[in-house]
Amino acid sequence: MRQSNMLIPTLREVPKEADIPSHQLLLKAGYIRKLASGVYNFLPLGKRVLRKLETIIREEMDRTGAQEIQMPSLQPAELWESSGRWETMGLELMRLNDRHERRFALGATHEEVVTSLIGDEINSYKKLPLTVYQIQNKFRDEKRPRFGLLRGREFLMKDAYSFHETYESLDEAYDQLFTAYKRIFERCGLNFRAVIADSGAMGGKDTHEFMVLSDIGEDTIAYSDESDYAANVEMAPVHQTYESSNDEAMPLEKVETPNAKTMQEVADYLDHTLQEGMKAIMFKVDDRFVMVVTRGDHEVNDVKVKNLLDANIVELATEQETIDAVGAGFGSLGPIGVPDDVEVIADHAVKALVNATCGANDNGYHYRNVNPERDFSATQYADVRFIEEGDPSPDGHGTIQFAKGIEVGHVFKLGSIYADKLGASFLNQEGRAQHYIMGCYGIGVSRTLAAVVEQFHDEQGMLWPDSLVPFDVHIVNLNMKKDEQVTVAESVYDTLQHQGFDVLYDDRPERAGVKFNDSDLIGITHRVTVGKRAGEGYVEYKNRQTGEQQDVHVDDLPAFLSSTTHA
Question: Domain Aminoacyl-transfer RNA synthetases class-II family profile: where (predicted)?
Answer without folding.
Answer: 38-465
